[in-house]
Write a structure and sequence with these properties.
The complex is a heterodimer of chains A (323) and B (94).
Chain A lengths: L1 H25 L3 H21 L3 H22 L14 H27 L6 H8 L8 H9 L1 H21 L11 H24 L7 H18 L9 H26 L10 H25 L10 H13 L1
Helix pairs in contact in A: 1-2, 2-3, 3-9, 3-11, 6-7, 7-10, 7-11, 8-9, 9-11, 10-11
Chain B lengths: L1 H25 L3 H26 L3 H35 L1
The chains are: A mainly alpha (323), B mainly alpha (94).
């Protein structure tokens, strides 16, 4: 009986996901597409939780639905409310559909083949057998920060590159004008809660679902909330500090990697006895960098005085006053 | 006994979610839709949370569920307020 209910629930989830995905892609209304995409992210998070992948569920909920949603909403802000997705010609649309279908079939085949045909050693078994030397007891963190640390380093580089591109293209956008004292009241007690939760996710990543990406995204959510609740507050960023925070994740990662290379002749080949502490250090730095990067991406460009740095900026202000 | 009560609470919670969804789809304007949605959400989630708390023996998890309910309630109240306020301003501007 209960199994039947679960399978009905699962089938409903999958059908809902497909319907939402279809509607997200086919609607011409930009605002509608973004809203549907956020809803799809939340649904995807539930599905990951059902598949017993709480790490992915957390990441999808915080990054996929939360931060991506905020970024998309901030990106379409200047569009008129009636904005439409530009119409493509039938030929191009047909080609895109065929290619997408081909990719879907290929990936379905790959998953089916991987599950049924190959009789090689499963990667998860290898991970479990090596877990004791990884320094952490959460297998996902072990893979991300130890066995495949190189991939995670490059992921951080991708995030940094994306944000640097955003900073090159634009000045920071003006904040929203409409705000409400109720939002400010909620922000006041929600932001400390978010900061604590972010710290918890970072710490707990060693032995339970959590980690730098989730923690960083949650910290960024707190920053975005502050930005929304207090748009008129004068936002003087310390640009030196901001630049350091932005790169400290990659810097620490590379530094630890080089240090381990000098000891073990292997870039990012952690000494097992220190692995736990090293992973925590890298994750802490990465959390800060991810939070800074996502917040800057949400702001949509350079804060005031980014290129000049703070000191030159204040000099310009003095000169301006003298004239 | 406690199981029956829990199931009763969860199903009455689902009823509130259901009526909230009907309200969202059928009511004529934004304000009445918001009203239906926020009320149904809060009561519905409260009842579902109550039912789950009855079924969950670990007190730590019970506290977590209660905190989730409080957070969702605050978020839904504030976001309804913000949406309504924005809509009201647009009406006034026109």
């Amino acid at each position: 009986m209960i199994e039947l209910l679960w399978s009905i629930f699962d089938i409903t989830l999958v059908l809902l996901l497909l319907a939402l995905a279809w509607n997200t892609c086919s609607t011409r209304d930009v605002m509608r597409a973004v809203t549907l995409f956020i809803a799809m992210g939340l649904l995807l998070a539930i599905i990951w939780a059902r598949l017993k992948a709480p790490d992915l569920a957390l990441a999808e909920a915080v990054i996929g639905a939360g931060i991506s949603g905020a970024l998309l909403l901030s990106a379409i802000r200047d569009y008129p409310s009636t904005a439409m997705v530009s119409q493509r010609s039938t030929l191009i649309e047909g080609i895109i559909n065929i290619l997408t279908l081909a990719l879907t079939i290929l990936m379905s085949w790959a998953v089916w083949h991987g599950l049924n045909m190959s009789d090689g050693v499963r990667l998860s078994e290898q991970v479990i057998s090596q877990l004791p030397v990884s320094g952490v007891s959460n297998p996902v963190t072990a893979v991300l920060l130890n066995f495949r640390a190189y991939d995670t380093l490059l992921e951080l580089a991708v995030v940094l590159t994306a944000v640097l591109t955003v900073l090159t293209l634009n000045e920071k956008r003006a904040g929203y004008k409409v705000s409400s004292p109720l939002l400010q009241g909620m922000t006041r007690w929600l932001v400390p809660l978010l900061v604590v939760t972010s710290g918890y996710l970072l710490w707990v990543g060693a032995h339970a679902p959590g980690g730098a990406f989730q923690a960083g995204a949650m910290l960024a959510a707190a920053m975005i909330l502050l930005q929304l609740a207090y748009p008129s507050r004068r936002q003087e960023f310390n640009n030196y500090l901001l630049k350091i925070l932005l790169v400290i994740g990659i810097f620490t990662f590379v530094l630890v990697g080089l240090w381990m290379m000098s000891l073990n002749d292997d870039f990012l080949g952690f000494t097992p006895a220190w692995a736990g502490s090293l992973i925590l250090i890298i994750e802490t730095a990465a959390t800060v960098s991810i939070a800074t990067a996502l917040t800057l991406a949400y702001l949509g460009g350079r804060p005031k005085g980014w290129e000049a740095g703070n000191h030159t900026d204040s000099k310009i202000a003095e000169n301006g006053g003298a004239e | 006994m406690i199981d029956t009560l829990a199931i009763l609470a969860i199903f009455s919670g689902l009823f509130f979610f259901f009526s909230g969804s009907i309200g969202l789809l059928r009511l004529p304007d934004l304000f009445s839709r918001l009203h239906a949605l926020a009320k149904a959400d809060n009561v519905g989630l409260a009842l579902v949370a109550l039912g789950v708390i009855m079924l969950e023996p670990d007190p730590l998890n019970d506290i977590k569920i209660a905190v989730i309910w409080l957070l969702v309630m605050a978020a839904s109240a504030i976001s309804s307020h913000l949406v309504a306020r924005h809509a009201l301003r647009e009406i006034r501007d026109d």
